[in-house]
Amino acid sequence: MNLLIWGLATGIAFGFLLQKGRVLRYDKQLGALRLIDMTIVKFMFSTVLVGMVGIYLLHDMGLISLKLKATILGGNIIGGLIFGVGWGLVGYCPGTSMGAIGEGRVDAFWGILGMLFGAAVYAEVYPQLKTSVLTWGNFGKITLPQLLGVNHWLLVAAMIVLALGMFFWFEKKGL
Amino acid sequence: MKQTDDPGSWNPYLAGALTGLVAVASVFFTGQFLGASTSFVRSAGMLERLVNSERVAQNSYLSKYLQPGVSGIDWQWMFVIGILLGALIAAATSGSFRLQAVPDMWQRRFGSKTAFSRALTAFIGGAILLFGARLAGGCPSGHGLSGVMQLAVSGLVALVCFFAGGMLVARLLYGKGDE
């Protein structure tokens, strides 16, 4: 029960910040996909940079454990592309669709109904996918530092440099 | 960088960085990484269970998440409900809550009397998106934020593909350029 309250509280904090950052809007999501307004990319990578440093610090101190999703290239690539096609149409992702409702965006409601339908369809065809696409290129639960055989802080530093460079470029171009 | 025409908005770098702290705190205190799309599977299963519980119990995918006699409500499901509430609080307290059926950008491209086609597109897009998210193993929260911050190969690959697919469709819908 305690964990459920934590979930609700964490969601409220996340939804609050998503709304404040203006990440919830169709115009912002499509703006990023059209490369004319990078608000959501700025938000995402700021979250990732802070999160990455925090997670790896706590991990090195032995206070937390990572929870990795398996790398299955067939699923990650084909599923990712299918997701992208749907994302371009609906203009909200699963998390932001809920927040968009909170902001009064009625079209997100239809998107959520579609998502529930899509989940039900996936459950029906899962047995077929499990023995095909989801077996292609299965590397298990690996991180980029493990794959490349380098220290994770080297890649954390590289990510920070890349992201800051990208941020600088966005601001220069007024995106 | 505060936009004066948009009441209550925060700099996206600041809001994003604070979200990073929320994500780290969540892992530290409860071991939970942010994610959203699994909850849509649980909800679909809960709705199906109202009609035919046998079918849900026999489905090899839904039964991974929903055991008979258990509510199916977990940390992430409450987290997703919380997103709606948090956004509502932020919007209501800053005067930026706005009931709108057709987004501004869509109106400029397709006209303002397009509520039906917008709703239909949102439904179809939502269905395709969630199917893809489950095949990929996550969405921009689970893969894009939680996966990438752990430097997971799966998260990095999925994030690139999310944007690749989305940019293609955005180009088809809106063409090249600004408006």
Structure report:
The complex is a heterodimer of chains A (175) and B (179). With 175 residues, chain A is an all-alpha fold. Chain A is 73% helix and 3% strand. Chain A has helices at residues 2-20, 26-33, 39-60, 73-90, 94-102, 107-130, 144-148, 152-173; strands at residues 71-72, 138-140. Chain A starts with a helix and ends with a helix. With 179 residues, chain B is mainly alpha-helical. The longest helix of chain B has 22 residues, at 115-136. Chain B is globular and about 50 Å long. The model of chain B has no long low-confidence stretch (mean pLDDT 94).
Taken as a percent bin, the fraction of beta residues of chain B is: under 5%
Contiguous uncertain segments of 5+ residues of chain B: none
Hey, which two chains have the biggest interface? A-B, 126 and 131 residues
List the secondary-structure elements of chain A in sequence, H or E.
Answer: HHHEHHHEHH
Strand order of the largest sheet of chain A: 1-2
Distance between the termini of chain B: 23 Å
Q: Give the N-to-C terminal Cα separation of chain A.
A: 44 Å
Instruction: Characterize the biggest β-sheet of chain B.
Output: none
- How many helices of chain B? 9
Shape of chain B: globular
Count of DSSP H/I helices of chain A: 8
What's the helix and strand layout?
The complex is a heterodimer of chains A (175) and B (179).
Chain A: H1 2-20, H2 26-33, H3 39-60, E1 71-72, H4 73-90, H5 94-102, H6 107-130, E2 138-140, H7 144-148, H8 152-173
Antiparallel strand pairs in A: 1-2
Chain B: H1 12-30, H2 37-51, H3 53-58, H4 62-65, H5 75-94, H6 104-110, H7 115-136, H8 140-149, H9 153-174
Helix pairs in contact in B: 8-9
